[in-house]
Amino acid sequence: MKLRILKILLKKEILLMKRNPFIPRVIVALPLMAMLVLPLVANLDVKNVSVAVVDNDRSELSRRIVADMDASEYLSVQSCDFIYDEALKSIENGDADAILIIPADYSDRLTKGENPQMSLDANGVNASKGMLGSRYAAQSATSTVSQWLSETGVNRPAPQVNVLNLYNPTLNFRNYMIPALMVVLIIIICGFLPTLNLVNEKETGTIEAMNVTPVGRLTFVLSKLIPYWIVGLLVVSVGMLIGWLVYGLVPAGNIGSIYLAAILFSLVMSGLGVTIANKSATILQSIFVMFAFIMIFQLMGGLFTPIASMPQWAQDITYAVPPRFFIEIMRAVYLKGASIADLSTQYLALTGFAILFCGLSAFTYKKRS
Amino acid sequence: MIKKETLHLTRDSRTMTVVLVMPIVLLLLFGFAISTEVNNINIVAVVNKHDDTSRNLIEKLRINSYFTFKGIVAFEEVEPMLRRGEADAAVILKSENGNTAYQIISDASNTSMAQTATGYVESVLTDGTKPPVLMRTLYNPQLKSAYNFVPGIMGMIFILICAMMTSVSIVSEKETGTMNLLLVSPAKPRTIILGKLVPYFILSCIILTLTLIIAYAVLGLPVSLNILNVIWVSLIYIILALALGLLISTLANTQVTALLVSGVLFMLPVVMLSGMIFPIEDMPVVLQWFSCIIPARWYVSAMRTLMVQQLPASFVMTQVAVLSAMTVAVLIFAIKKFNTKH
Amino acid sequence: MNEKFAISVRNLVKRFGNFTAVDNLSFDVARGEIFGFLGANGAGKTTAMRMLCGLSYPTSGSGTVAGFDIMSQAEYIKRHIGYTSQKFSLYEELTVSENLTLFSTIYGMSDIEIKKKSEEIFMTLEMADMRNTLVKDIPTGWKQKLAFSAATMHSPDIVFLDEPTGGVDPVTRRRFWELIYEASSRGMTIFVTTHYLDEAEYCNRISIMVDGRIKALDSPENLKKEYNCATMDEVFRIVAKDAKRGD
Lengths: 369, 342, 247
Prior knowledge:
The complex is a heterotrimer.
Chain A: H1 3-19, H2 23-41, E1 49-55, H3 60-71, E2 75-81, H4 84-92, E3 98-102, H5 106-111, E4 118-123, H6 127-152, E5 161-166, H7 173-204, H8 206-211, H9 217-225, H10 227-245, H11 255-279, H12 283-300, H13 312-318, H14 322-336, H15 344-364
Parallel strand pairs in A: 1-2, 1-3
Antiparallel strand pairs in A: 3-4
Helix pairs in contact in A: 1-9, 2-7, 2-10, 3-6, 7-10, 7-11, 7-12, 7-14, 9-15, 10-11, 11-12, 11-14, 11-15, 14-15
Chain B: H1 2-11, H2 13-33, E1 41-47, H3 52-63, E2 67-72, H4 75-84, E3 89-96, E4 99-107, H5 111-125, E5 133-138, H6 145-176, H7 178-184, H8 189-218, H9 226-251, H10 255-273, H11 285-291, H12 295-308, H13 317-341
Parallel strand pairs in B: 1-2, 1-3
Antiparallel strand pairs in B: 3-4
Chain C: E1 5-16, E2 19-30, E3 34-39, H1 45-52, E4 60-65, E5 68-69, H2 74-79, E6 81-84, H3 96-106, H4 111-125, H5 140-152, E7 158-162, H6 170-185, E8 189-194, H7 197-200, E9 205-210, E10 213-218, H8 220-227, H9 232-239
Parallel strand pairs in C: 3-8, 3-9, 6-7, 7-8
Antiparallel strand pairs in C: 1-2, 1-4, 4-5, 9-10
């Protein structure tokens, strides 16, 4: 491998990238768009849970439960009926997310020292909203009841619990999403661009001109991979800048460790992209195969749903999904201030994947058919 | 014409495999691997005095299926363990004069995990008294996220296959020049378009069948006559997606442009704004308005009503009306564009 | 190593599945010769040439190019040849001089050599004012000449030209052949495929390929004599009359 040849090939790649009408725009516009719009959209904090109440008690307490619920930040009482079917209809129409049923004689039985139960039916169509929303509603009702109990003197001892939310004291979901969004950006940009680049060289025939020269396989493949380090770093930088300027989020840990992980991960993605391009005949084919990988990476990497919630066999699979490690690194460095030493397993895994995919891309690149 | 296109399509076996296998894999992943439910919380305990209360609590944590108890550690160890991700939360017990004070320290970098962990620990601590509110779930008793995602996946796959594949394949003929060859042939432009679209329509129908089989047979969505409604609404959506593909192909001149246009204009909004993953009502109002022009939004919401809630077709008339109007508009526009160009 | 022949192949075969694209090819090309490869589209010219250049593995057969074995020493061959493909294959988004620098650096030329050679090329092609123009913006005729110059810049032993004059006007074609003669006079062996029969007359020797086989191989004069024809056009029509492939 001759450095001089690598240098001229890199110069060619960068010139071509700069002169392409799309690529520079994509590198800037996609992070901007994603970082500005996505955190607004990808808001898994459940808000505006509307509750339909079926009040069969019709007491002072039941009215207070409804009023407290309506006053809560997350909940709004959509209707207050006396017939269950009416409430169910509002769920079917999509107007309500949950039904709270207060049984007849609820407050009377409570004063007598009995333990009556309200029930809460959540609309399970949207699982996360159903679950979290009904928990909020239950909490709200419970606290009204216990307040009422303590006011009327029927107090029950409950243990005092003090909760400390480390790293993200306001429990802001955005702080959890933003570091992971940069991972998505690198997945998309460093995955698709090298694939398109190489398949395009195949379709225009310029790859033939390269293959007939004595250029080394490794040199050529490296010239395809290295530019995406730079792209990866650019993307992460734009992302961090927006994170800071728009959302006021700065990494708690060392920026160097973020960049290191970004370089390793862009190598993984571009290596995968080049491998796919080597094996594909048409643009469509390469895009579909890449797309399949990207979907699985996003779903299994722990981006939107926690890996810990998966069944064991699926959790085992995620060890073969490179973004899993990058997402862990990004979140840990950004929010917890973890160091490279804390995350040595993840860094090692990423390095391993980077070597594997780069090797694979050089191996699958054939100068002869 | 149709025969030629079908041949062309089936010869690319790798793309076909991806197209047919991807929906299945996605459905199965959503059905069995992915859930928003939080369990397997790694928890540690810090105890300053071993007594009955602490032993009792630790036993409860140990047997609770939501927790994986990682042992009793020193207080100084808690923060490093949370930082390295070895634990998700810690319970600290401080016994003084027979009274026990509790503290929960959670790794709030993962917000929903922290919230749920706190909730679970609190319920373990207060265990013994019956909860004052009994929680049940309608329609989706195990809170299986899969149900929720099936319509979204269908919405995405059809856009991908119909809009992306058709537009790229038509544009690739433009690039290689075979399109001109076809256009100077005696075949009418209408026949040429139809020949291009029919194979993709058939492919979409195969995928629709596959998805429905998996949704009903494997994921256990309740079977009823409503399937017929699901099918005809899906067919409208497929035609709409094909029309979009045709429209893109008349606008784009290179395969890469066609890909970018269909990718940026359709795929991203479909994933983000259709309500597939993120609820529309939690978005800022401007984005909610914007989501109205995304076909997938209407399709996904119609599919949810029909498949998950099992309501009759009269509940999805708005969605069907919007989808039909969009289909007619796009189709007219695309054909007009195609005719003026050639 | 064969001192006398630049190219020497025996029983070269290439099959794609059931389809035999190149069937049992054997021929020699002497050093310094201009060797024409004629045939209809689909006769197997490009496939044969791709095997010689080390772009494609022969199914069977043996041979040497520039003294190296085509089976095992393809990468050595590549150091001693130049090639222009049927598709125009310079980078459209690079300028003329960027393209020249790129390719000659890969062949290991020094910066001083590259500079000197580039100037020479700009002189002979009369395109000094276009050196910083993007290749996609220069006229087609210039592009072909530029591709040829890029392929010969490192003074290879053999140049392979795959239909270099496709879609070019007669004047430019004429000019292009002057370039070929000039390269030949510097000692390069030229291996050129074409389907323009008038161009066959410019070659020292030609071979006519029909359905993957060589049907005739000799100098244009001898072929005309043998088939008793006045022009190469007629020769070709007689030789290729049984052709099944091509249009």
